[in-house]
Amino acid sequence: MPETLQQAVTGLDSRRAVLLVAVLAVAAALAVPATVAADTKTNTTENETTETPEFDQQLVSVAPPEKATLGIDAPGEDPFQIEIDMGDQFHLEATVVDHDDDVRILLATGDVRAEDPDEYLSAENAGLENVAVHANELERDRPPGGLHDLRISVGNETLDHAVLEVKPIVVFDRIDEFEPDESQTIAGQADLDDGERIQVRVRSTGNGAFLLSEEAVVEDERFEATFDASNVQPGADFEVTARHDNQTVGSTTGTVVDSTAGESDDDDRTQESHGVVLVYEGDLLELEAAPDQRIAGEADLEEGESVSVRVRGESDGISFLVTNQTTVDEHGTFEVTVDLDEISPGTEFTVHVRADDDPDVQGSAPGVVVESTDGASDGGDGETDTQIDDGESDDGTLSIPGDALGGIGALVAGAGIAVLGIGLILGIGRRQ
Question: For bias kind Acidic residues, which ranges apply (predicted)?
Answer without folding.
Answer: 380-395
